[in-house]
Amino acid sequence: MSVEAAKMIGAGLACIALVGAGIGIGNVFGSYLSGALRNPGAAAGQTTNLLLGFALCEATGLFGLVIALLILFAF
Amino acid sequence: MQIHPMDQFRVEPIIPLHIGGVDVSFTNQSLVMCLIVGLVALFMATAVSSRRLVPGRMQSMAELSYEFVSNMIQSSAGVEGLKFFSFIFTIFFFVLFSNVLGLIPGIFTVTSQIAVTFALSMLVMIAVLITGFARHGLGFLKLFVPKAPFVLLLLLVPIEIISFLTRPISLSVRLFANMLAGHTMLKVFAGFVIALGGAGGIMSVLSIAPMLLIVAITALEMLVALLQAYVFAILTCIYLSEALHLHDHH
Fold first, then answer.
1. Phi first, then psi: what are they for B64, rounded to 5°?
2. Nearest to A51 among B170, B181, B231 (CB)
């Protein structure tokens, strides 16, 4: 297999990281919604934590993207 | 016509300048940074130029942004964190303006460069280290030692140190990758519009679909631009709060 083809496959594989990010973001918003519907009074106070959790989850998926870009363009 | 989606991130010198073998050219990136600083300064200066008791539109925008950042600091770092108000306000507005300005087609996105975001996050980390050591002396190192049995500490201390050391990387890569991914996605979809539109016949009519999708994605990117500026600022607050209070929370 040529190096060029291996790079393409590797970059594609690195995007599997987005599976984890998808599960994580779904979990964050799902848990927030179920908590917020049980206790709507406390929901507004937790938006900061919600956004923070969302950003931290999303970042892990984007690290995969960075690895894909590194494989494609840096080596 | 074939345009690579990564071409938009190319840094091009406008005024080439080399001093002692170091490339210090004035690039399109420097131009946009100057524009951002100018716009933020202009916004704040004109907003508070006519100081009225009952604020007008511009003044209430400035007051709202002041209160927003102030509340953010107080809720995450306590009243003591207000000492860093100007630092966090500056970072928040710089990141916010560069994210939002970058969404205008043709304007270079400063935060899509890892060099810029990493410099910003190193600035935050240096501020955290200086604050921590100035306030607690060597006691700042207690940050790495949580309250736990000795056997667990053997495991926890290395983890705490590694998590502290990877903070500048995660802080910068989060912002950079979000901006990079969003703008690449916009350009990829724009490529679909051109390819379909040029195909002729029914295909040209179909090209309206990716066009509408681009509008929707731009709205999403606007949300991401605001959210990432907010996240960058609030994580700065949280890191500073740890340096101020160590593990005991206010």
1. -60, -45
2. B231
